[in-house]
Amino acid sequence: MRVPLLKPRPIRLSHYADDLAAHEASGVFSNFGPINTAFESRLLSDVFGGDGACLTACNATIALLLAVKEAVHFGGRRGRYALVPSFTFAATAHAAAWCGLTPILYDIEPETWLPSREAEQRLMERHGEDIAVILPYATYGNCLDLNWYAALAARTGVGVVIDAAASLGTRDAAGHGFGHGAPMSVVYSMHATKTFATSEGAVIYCADKQRIARLRQMANFGFDGARAAQMPGLNAKLAELPALQALRKLDEIDRVVERRAELYALYRARLQDFTFQRHTGTRAAHQFVPTLMPEEAGIPRATFVQRMKERGVDLGTYFSPHLAEQPYFKDIAVVDELPVTAAIAPRVVALPLYDTMEEAELRYVCEAAADCLR
Ligand SMILES: *Cc1c(COP(=O)(O)O)cnc(C)c1O
Q1: Which residues are CB-contacts of 107 (< 8 A; sequence separation ≥ 6)?
Q2: Family assignment (predicted)?
Q3: Alpha-carbon distance 103 to 180, whole Å?
Q4: Where exactly are the structural domains of the chain?
Q5: Who's near 354: CB < 8 A, 6+ residues apart?
Q6: Does any ligand 1 atom lie closer than 6 A to the CB of residue 203?
Q7: Does the beta carbon of 56 lie inside 6 Å of ligand 1?
Q8: Is the CB–ligand 1 distance for residue 61 below 6 Å?
Q9: Residue 203 contacts residue 48 (beta carbons within 8 Å)
Q10: Residue whose C-alpha is closest to residue 142's, from 117, 120, 121, 111
């Protein structure tokens, strides 16, 4: 049997010939056309209870960059640092670096794998005004405590942008879409490999409609009505075609997330020797199944991954190497103490997960894992 790590499943545009014909007839291909507008408004009501506003973007990396720039430019912070967890995807730190900030890479918590609040507090005390922005990652679609960050921002004036790249479909402890009510920008990816799969795309949500209005202007070159730049800008717009993929994905996202949650629970029940993440919300939009190999596994992770590959099972190792181990970030970033990251990253393996995964495939993966560790 061959089991890939992921099987991206954006909706089949070829099944939506009428939508495509209407799109072509509209003569509008980008610039927040009717499909983008319909998607933003349905997403807002379906996922965020109609509170606040959201904005589409061409991908989450550019959306993070835009949101960091907005937080720093309009927040009036002159600091040169951005707090970024080391246990995240490269895009989080790249966004800070493109805004001219130096990432300070900090640790995570041992069970939720969310960014360490102890480290955030300590670094804020040490660097104060020199920290322009904090970029916490909602690790693997787990829920951050947004009140903590709102209070930190209110108390210190620091900018906050949430990297919620894997969280579209996640529900928080109150059962709302993760991000609901956030006073800061929350950035979600709709990349083909994410649970909310399109081709390329992203969403920024904020409870503050004015912030979204500013971001919308920034995403269109910072132009006002007279096409004169009023603020920092770039082109971050989502084209209408991927917006159609997003609009139709909304019809099935609950089914997709729930099917993935069932599969996740089966893995958890079968792999008693592996360590799973502690979840803080009521539903996570699992993109894959991150686990830690047993501490007493007796074989290096690379050997395990190789043996699984020989059995036809592809594993991932997100996020290892973590950022402080990657040459570019080693070069440009400041590295804080990382005891938890250093303990977790070498043991992390991502197990296969996709919408159409069969239970027989999952059983095969679990049996192969037991054999390969023997
Ligand atoms: C996928 C991902 C991104 C980037 O999303 P794109 O839409 O591919 O640019 C950023 N941060 C994290 C943590 C991600 O997993």
Answers
A1: 85, 86, 87, 115, 116, 119, 336, 337, 338, 339, 340, 341
A2: Belongs to the DegT/DnrJ/EryC1 family.
A3: 27
A4: 13-249, 253-373
A5: 4, 6, 7, 9
A6: no
A7: no
A8: yes
A9: no
A10: 111
Which residue's CA is minimally distant from atom 6 of ligand 1? 60
Q: Which two tokens stand for residue 320?
A: 């290892």
Q: Find the helix or strand (DSSP H, E) in which 106 lies.
A: strand 102-106
- Within 10 angstroms of residue 49's Cβ, the number of other Cβ atoms is 12
pLDDT recorded at residue 297: 85
Per the CATH hierarchy, to which homologous superfamily does domain 253-373 belong? Aspartate Aminotransferase, domain 1 (3.90.1150.10)
Helices 240-270 and 17-26, packing angle to 10 deg: 140
Binding site membership of 77 for ligand 1 (Cβ less than 6 Å): no
Q: What is the atom index within ligand 1 of the atom nearest the CA of 62?
A: 9
Each residue of 114-137: b (16+ CB within 10 Å) or e?
A: bbbeebbeebbeebeeebbbbbbb
Task: Tokens 């990432």: give the residue.
Answer: 103
In 11-78, alpha helices (H):
17-26, 34-48, 60-75
* Residue among 367, 195, 123 at smallest CA distance from 267: 367
Chain-centroid distance, C-alpha 285? 10
What's the CATH number of domain 13-249, 3.40.640.10, 3.30.540.10, 3.40.50.300, 3.40.50.10330?
3.40.640.10
pLDDT averaged per 10 residues in sequence order, the chain, 374 residues: 98 97 97 98 97 98 98 94 98 98 98 98 97 98 98 97 98 97 98 98 98 98 96 98 98 98 98 97 98 92 98 98 98 98 98 98 98 93
Residue nearest to atom 8 of ligand 1 (CA): 191
Spatial CB neighbours of 30, under 8 Å, sequence gap ≥ 6: 237, 238, 239, 240
Residue 294, exposed/middle/buried by CB under 10 A (0-12, 13-18, 19+)? middle
Q: What is the pLDDT of residue 76?
A: 86
